[in-house]
Amino acid sequence: EDDAAAGPEKEEVEKRVQLLQESTQSEIDERALSSLWSLSASKAMEVLQRVEELVEAQGGACRNLSSMLQSVCRKMERKMIADAKAKAAEGEAGDDAARKHKQDDGKEEYWTVKRIERIAEQCFETWYEADRWRLKLSMSGSDLASCDVAMERFCAWL
Q1: How far apart are CA 158 and CA 148, in angstroms?
Q2: pLDDT at 117
Q3: What pLDDT does 91 receive?
Q4: What is the mean pLDDT of residues 38-60?
Q5: Is the pLDDT of residue 55 over 80?
Q6: Long-range contacts for 114-120 (Cβ within 8 Å, ≥24 apart)?
Q7: What angle do CA 136, 67, 138 make, to 5 degrees?
Q8: pLDDT per residue over 76-104, tens digit each?
Q9: Across 65-72, average pLDDT
Q10: What are the tens digits of pLDDT across the range 93-142?
Q11: Which of 73, 79, 150, 75 is closest to 117 using CA atoms?
Q12: Which residues contact 22 (CB under 8 A, 6 or more apart)?
């Protein structure tokens, strides 16, 4: 993917950062910006979209925008590492696994059980708060919702 520090993509990211700072009346510190710039332009835009969603969920206010941005950047980095590992594992599975996932008409099946499980695990966030467990299901940025077959299989997985 393209480096965030180059060309028109960088300008778009910079504009979005500026708008986010203006809308929240907060400054993003150098450390948070460094985390953001370590990502590709497309991933940086995804991170900023997620931060905007979080700010909006808090009523448009944010006490520590830098902390929020760094947290989302770290999650994106972990997701990218997990995706890379999953992709490598899929590649190692070889032709035998690919043959198993062929549909009757000869097309390769994209929404395999393994893929659904991997994406579903990324959508879930659980934590213990006070005296109970909390569950957050966030499908933003996931392509599950874009396909009926995927959503059917995801619901069955639940």
Answers
A1: 15
A2: 79
A3: 63
A4: 90
A5: yes
A6: 114/90, 116/144, 116/150, 116/153, 116/154, 116/157, 117/157, 118/82, 118/86, 119/143, 119/144, 119/154, 120/144, 120/154, 120/157, 120/158
A7: 20
A8: 888 888 888 777 776 655 544 444 445 45
A9: 92
A10: 554 444 444 545 555 677 787 888 787 777 777 777 888 888 887 777 67
A11: 150
A12: none
> How big is the chain, counted in residues?
158
Whether pTM exceeds 0.70: no
Tokens (6 digits) for 56: 């909006």
| 13 close to 7: Cβ distance less than 8 angstroms | no
What angle, rounded to 10 degrees, do the helices at 41-57 and 30-37 form? 130
Give the tokens for residue 151.
């959503």
Can you give the pLDDT at residue 111? Answer: 77
Q: With the C-alpha atoms ordered 49, 70, 86, 127, is the resulting torsion angle positive or negative?
A: negative
Q: At which residue do the structure tokens 């500026």 appear?
A: 18
User: Could you tell me if residue 102 is left (phi over 0), alpha (psi between -120 and 50 degrees) or otherwise beta?
Assistant: beta
| Distance, CA of 35 to CA of 53 (rounded, Å) | 19
Maximal CA-CA distance, the chain: 56
Dist. CA 145–CA 111, nearest whole Å = 12
Asked whether the beta carbons of 83 and 115 are under 8 A apart, the reply is no
